[in-house]
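Weekly structure sync, notes
Attendees: PL (lead), two postdocs, one rotation student
Agenda item 3: pending single-chain targets
PL asked that the sequence for the first pending target be pasted directly into the notes so everyone works from the same version. It is reproduced below exactly as submitted, 161 residues in total.
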Amino acid sequence: MTMTDVAAELAELLDRYWSWRVEYQDHPPAWVATRRPSPAQVHVLAAYDLGSLRDKLASAETLSTALADLRHEFAGSGVTFGTVWASAAGPGARRLYASRAGVLITSWTAAELRSRLREELAGEQAAPGGRLALTPEVLADGLCPGQPGCGDTGHDDGHQL
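Predicted structure, written out during the meeting:
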């Protein structure tokens, strides 16, 4: 790849992903993209070539859009959303999460997280005191660590946070 090709590819990346700062570092040799969506957050991606960096940027943008949609849809519910690295699932794999009142729900896709969260919030209406009800499915997933009785195989008495 010539310097002109690299410059053209880099210009296309910067034009398409304008909120990211992209630079090359010599040691170890890699392309690094950074973005600061808020003063307390920094997103960093790295790749050995611009093609791989493009793929990572596209994935990051998709996740950012999905999280923004979820935050908008569930505004006022007190639910916090985010992503976590899932390195055992492969390079760059991320899981989405929603948390509220000590309950953590994770999934690979925004659609799955949305569905599970709607189910959980619907169950909230049946729970006394407006608390999130921990369903047998949530308990089976081990999503209430540290709570008495959670995760026990015979535990399905409607335990609530």
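Discussion points:
- The two ends are 58 Å apart (CA to CA).
- The first strand starts at residue 21 and ends at 25.
Action: rotation student to compare against the earlier draft before next sync.
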